[in-house]
């Protein structure tokens, strides 16, 4: 027997319809790579998405076909998202920072038929064209002359949609139909595709606006620094229409550009990985710039170091420390003040934010040991972190090897974590990055975070290096801040105030830079490879 209420499929286009109807005049501002700014609003995005949907049908694209984008954040990219999904296509955002053989693999694996791209990536598109076997149409978002084709690589965006009317009705269907495809930025092996559904995306978006998550409302002005190709810009482009947020996009990541844009557009909310915040912090420190009226920053993708949390808290900005994965749409946990927040000392508040937050309704977490036995949520025991819920992966796209999750939904995240009695989760490592010393685990993340709190340290990476007695011991690689003269001894002294003695790195090495993945995380696989034969003096 069914209940007596209406069946209203949770389809993504209802988000845009709502924004057009209820918040039509709320602006979408884009600063393009060439330095020009374009202003539209939710009504304009919806109108152009309908024109784009018609144009895709004219090109012969049909329901279920994949449409790729290789682009930074801007309003035209948003139009391509909604236009593609609105005509029943599957939007495939491609990360332009991937290696070329990975770029070839994922577009071919996805069987993309169309590619929308930024002019800035035209040379890359030119090089890749002969390797991409399924793309039939190339459309440049921002051709150099402002409209028409510029590179011989196909049509320009305005030219494509300009000839279309906006008389279009979105393709309807089941709420569990696919809408978007994102590939993981896997550091080993081929990237894997995660196929988001209409329903999973709408549920995730409805959760995301809530106060204890990203705290978004009709008064918010959000600048997603996280790129639209990184786990759907953490879902912000889908959450924004629910409450009619003003969105500000920048294709230029220069800290001065970002800061100016934040001030001139009145940005209240922003989200990004620690690496970009680090650059912004250095700029603000160096120039004495002001971030007002910024109120909430969401930091995720890698652990937010304490020093970063302090930087924002000192300026009266709330930090939402978020953890998630492409496989989780991506939000798994976000830190928000608990009931007794006002009783916390400042240090306790920072400690709380330094953990990765709590689950929203819709995510369940547990930790298990190596044989799968469930471990206690005691704030001490660490184990492999598993998650389940309606926006968490069941199986990878076209993966013949079977489901990615267990039959009862538990998906092994590959992270190692502690669950605290107050509901907070604390990532201690990636399962493969953990340093195994004398049968015990040392958290590389905690060492790194403690190290970046030491004056003069810009960035740090801890890797396990072979040791004849202990199996592995930590080696700390450090990038100094420009002009800083910090010594290994100073770093070890600083670390000894934050971690157990036996966790202290056996050696500290200074390096000019550290390798990062295409989504800004430390590339530990490359570091482990580089230092695999490193001889620690302590091992002699
Ligand atoms: P991606 O799918 O590229 O977003 O990568 C997901 C992985 O990033 C997770 O499995 C974690 O290992 C890592 N990660 C994401 N957020 C955090 C965080 N706040 N702290 C530590 N690691 C994180």
Supply the key terms.
alpha/beta; Rossmann fold; GMP Synthetase, Chain A, domain 3; eight-stranded mixed sheet; 15 helices; 24 strands; 28% helix; binds adenosine monophosphate
Percent of residues in beta strands? 15-25%
Termini gap: 74 Å
Tally of helical runs:
15
Give the overall silhouette.
globular
Please give the largest β-sheet.
8 strands, mixed
Describe the model.
With about 550 residues, this protein is of the alpha/beta class. Among the domains are: about 10-210, ANL, N-terminal domain (Rossmann fold, 3-Layer(aba) Sandwich), CATH 3.40.50.12780; about 365-430, Luciferase, domain 3 (Roll), CATH 2.30.38; about 435-540, GMP Synthetase, Chain A, domain 3, CATH 3.30.300. The chain is about 30% helix and about 25% strand. The chain has an eight-stranded mixed sheet, with helices on both faces. Strand 5 (about 110-115), helix 5 (about 120-130) and strand 6 form a beta-alpha-beta unit. Helix 1 packs across helix 2 (about 40-60), helix 2 (about 40-60) crosses helix 3 and helix 7 (about 200-210) crosses helix 8. The model has no long low-confidence stretch (mean pLDDT about 95). Bound molecules: adenosine monophosphate (AMP). Adenosine monophosphate (AMP) binds near residues 301, 324, 326 and 414. Adenosine monophosphate binds near residues 185, 414 and 415.
Q: Secondary structure elements and their pairing?
A:
Elements: H1 13-22, E1 27-31, E2 37-41, H2 42-58, E3 66-70, H3 75-86, E4 90-93, H4 100-110, E5 112-117, H5 122-128, E6 137-140, E7 155-156, H6 157-162, E8 178-183, E9 193-197, H7 198-208, E10 221-224, H8 236-243, E11 246-250, H9 255-265, E12 269-272, H10 274-287, E13 296-299, H11 306-314, E14 318-324, E15 331-334, H12 346-354, E16 364-368, E17 382-388, E18 411-419, E19 425-430, E20 435-437, E21 440-442, H13 444-452, E22 457-467, E23 471-480, H14 488-496, E24 507-510, H15 524-530
Parallel strand pairs: 1-11, 3-4, 3-5, 4-8, 5-6, 6-7, 10-11, 10-12, 12-13, 13-14, 23-24
Antiparallel strand pairs: 1-2, 8-9, 14-15, 16-17, 17-18, 18-19, 20-21, 22-23
The structure holds adenosine monophosphate.
Adenosine monophosphate (AMP) is lined by residues 184-185, 231, 300-303, 321-326, 330, 356, 413-415, 427, 430, 519.
């Amino acid at each position: 027997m069914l209940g007596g209420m209406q069946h209203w499929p949770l389809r993504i286009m209802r988000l845009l319809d709502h924004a057009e109807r209820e918040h039509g005049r709320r602006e979408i501002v884009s600063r393009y790579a060439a330095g020009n700014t374009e202003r539209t609003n939710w009504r304009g995005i919806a109108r152009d998405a309908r024109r784009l949907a018609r144009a895709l049908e004219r090109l012969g694209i049909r329901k279920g076909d994949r449409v790729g984008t290789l682009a930074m954040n801007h309003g035209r990219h948003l139009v391509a998202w909604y236009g593609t999904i609105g005509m029943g296509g599957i939007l495939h955002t491609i990360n332009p920072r991937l290696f070329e053989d990975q770029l070839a693999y994922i577009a071919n694996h996805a069987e993309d038929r169309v590619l929308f791209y930024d002019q800035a990536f035209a040379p890359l598109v030119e090089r890749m064209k002969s390797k991409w076997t399924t793309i039939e149409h190339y459309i440049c978002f921002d051709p150099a002359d402002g409209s028409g084709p510029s590179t011989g690589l196909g049509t320009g965006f305005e030219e494509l949609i300009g000839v279309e009317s906006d008389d279009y009705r979105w393709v309807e269907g089941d709420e569990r139909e696919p809408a978007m495809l994102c590939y993981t930025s896997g550091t080993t092996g081929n990237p894997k595709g995660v196929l988001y559904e209409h329903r999973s995306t709408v549920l995730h978006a409805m959760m995301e606006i809530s106060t204890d998550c990203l705290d978004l409302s009709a008064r918010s002005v959000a600048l997603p620094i996280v790129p639209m190709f990184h786990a759907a810009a953490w879902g912000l482009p889908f959450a924004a229409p629910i409450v009619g947020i003003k969105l500000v996009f920048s294709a230029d990541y220069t800290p001065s550009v970002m800061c100016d844009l934040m001030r001139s557009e009145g940005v209240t909310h922003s989200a990004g990985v620690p690496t970009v915040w680090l650059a912004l912090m250095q700029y603000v420190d160096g120039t004495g710039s002001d971030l007002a009226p910024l109120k909430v920053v969401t930091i995720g993708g890698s652990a937010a170091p304490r020093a970063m949390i302090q930087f924002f808290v000192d300026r009266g900005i709330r930090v939402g420390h978020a953890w998630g994965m492409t496989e989780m749409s991506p939000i798994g946990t976000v830190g928000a003040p608990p009931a007794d927040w006002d009783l916390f000392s400042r240090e306790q508040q920072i400690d709380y934010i330094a953990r990765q937050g709590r689950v929203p309704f819709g995510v369940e977490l547990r930790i298990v040991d190596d044989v799968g036995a469930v471990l206690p949520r005691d704030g001490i025991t660490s184990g492999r972190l598993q998650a389940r819920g309606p926006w968490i992966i069941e199986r990878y796209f076209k993966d013949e090897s079977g489901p990615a999750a267990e039959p009862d939904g538990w998906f092994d995240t590959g992270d190692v974590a502690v669950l605290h009695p107050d509901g907070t989760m604390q990532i201690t490592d990636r399962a493969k990055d953990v340093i195994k010393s004398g049968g015990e685990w040392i958290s590389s993340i905690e060492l790194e975070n403690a190290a970046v709190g030491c004056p003069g340290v810009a960035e740090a990476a801890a890797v396990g290096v072979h040791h004849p007695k202990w199996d592995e011991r930590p080696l700390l690689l450090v990038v100094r801040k420009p002009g800083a003269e910090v010594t290994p001894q100073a770093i070890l002294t600083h670390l000894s105030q934050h971690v157990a003695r036996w966790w202290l790195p056996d050696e500290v090495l200074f390096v000019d830079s550290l390798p990062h993945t295409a989504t800004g995380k430390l590339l530990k696989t490359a570091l482990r490879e580089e230092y695999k034969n490193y001889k620690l003096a302590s091992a002699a």
